């Protein structure tokens, strides 16, 4: 048995038949082990069977405690790999004055970005999409929905819509949407964003590995070509515990032009 497993089991042996329900005792013991540094970010938990045997409790009890800790963001589960202590979240500072893709933005920070595709396909445009993109009722749109992940931490859910006449095959987008649009001369040069605070529902909280009801930032982005034509309509959800959006403000000069703030 490795040192990590020994530390975890040592933290679980206090689970007994007295006091609170067993799953709550186990949950508290794992939380305390994380807080005290006995098990750290990225450490793998032993299997449900091994934990149950060491703590002398049922696997159902272990599963309930682990699921609660996953919902609260203490643990993360990776399909086919197991359960791990969640990484410590370092906040990402995002400038509101630069129009960049998620992939480009994470690359500048030295973070490994990837996406988990939730949906890619051609659809009939919704009334909102027709209005924003300036489409007729007969025109189709490409929708791209994905979970954006940096250094294996889910940070955002992004749902982008592009006219199908511009992006006839959404599967052509493998990483950066803006890179794909740039290849056909349709990369946006400016955008207007509306940011609002909302609380996460169950499905989105599960995708972002945070508790249900967690505060997050909802961003609607309308992006434009140099000609002024709208090219992209995106609705995104960003983790409130991970992102800070920063805007630079300047004091107008006496003639109404922008000047340096002092």
From TrEMBL:
<protein>
    <submittedName>
        <fullName>GntR family transcriptional regulator</fullName>
    </submittedName>
</protein>
<keyword id="KW-0805">Transcription regulation</keyword>
<dbReference type="GO" id="GO:0003700">
    <property type="term" value="F:DNA-binding transcription factor activity"/>
</dbReference>
<keyword id="KW-0804">Transcription</keyword>
<dbReference type="GO" id="GO:0003677">
    <property type="term" value="F:DNA binding"/>
</dbReference>
<feature type="domain" description="HTH gntR-type">
    <location>
        <begin position="20"/>
        <end position="88"/>
    </location>
</feature>
<keyword id="KW-0238">DNA-binding</keyword>
<dbReference type="InterPro" id="IPR036390">
    <property type="entry name" value="WH_DNA-bd_sf"/>
</dbReference>
<dbReference type="GO" id="GO:0045892">
    <property type="term" value="P:negative regulation of DNA-templated transcription"/>
</dbReference>
<dbReference type="Pfam" id="PF07702">
    <property type="entry name" value="UTRA"/>
</dbReference>
<dbReference type="InterPro" id="IPR028978">
    <property type="entry name" value="Chorismate_lyase_/UTRA_dom_sf"/>
</dbReference>
<dbReference type="Pfam" id="PF00392">
    <property type="entry name" value="GntR"/>
</dbReference>
<dbReference type="InterPro" id="IPR050679">
    <property type="entry name" value="Bact_HTH_transcr_reg"/>
</dbReference>
<dbReference type="InterPro" id="IPR036388">
    <property type="entry name" value="WH-like_DNA-bd_sf"/>
</dbReference>
<dbReference type="InterPro" id="IPR000524">
    <property type="entry name" value="Tscrpt_reg_HTH_GntR"/>
</dbReference>
<dbReference type="InterPro" id="IPR011663">
    <property type="entry name" value="UTRA"/>
</dbReference>
């Amino acid at each position: 048995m490795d040192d990590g497993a020994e530390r975890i089991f040592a933290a679980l042996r206090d689970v007994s038949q007295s006091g609170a329900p067993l799953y709550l005792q186990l949950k508290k013991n794992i939380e305390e082990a994380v807080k005290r540094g006995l098990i750290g970010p990225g450490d793998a938990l032993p299997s449900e069977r091994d934990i149950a045997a060491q703590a002398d409790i049922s696997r159902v009890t272990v599963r309930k405690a682990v699921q609660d800790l996953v919902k609260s963001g203490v643990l993360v589960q990776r399909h086919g790999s197991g359960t791990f202590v969640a990484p410590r979240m370092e906040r990402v500072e995002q400038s509101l004055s630069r129009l960049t893709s998620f992939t480009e933005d994470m690359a500048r920070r030295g973070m490994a970005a990837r996406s988990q595709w939730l949906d890619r396909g051609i659809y009939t445009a919704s009334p909102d999409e027709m209005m924003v993109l300036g489409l007729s009722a007969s025109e189709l749109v490409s929708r791209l929905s994905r979970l954006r992940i940096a250094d294996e931490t889910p940070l955002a859910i992004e749902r982008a819509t592009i006219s199908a006449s511009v992006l006839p095959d959404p599967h052509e987008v493998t990483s950066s949407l803006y890179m794909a649009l740039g290849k056909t001369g349709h990369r946006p040069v400016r955008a207007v964003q509306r940011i609002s605070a909302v609380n996460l529902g169950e499905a989105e909280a599960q995708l972002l590995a945070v508790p249900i009801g967690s505060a997050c930032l909802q961003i609607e982005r309308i992006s434009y070509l140099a000609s002024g034509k709208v090219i992209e309509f995106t609705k995104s959800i960003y983790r409130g515990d991970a992102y800070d959006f920063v805007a630079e403000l300047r004091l107008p000069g006496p003639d109404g032009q922008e000047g340096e703030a002092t």
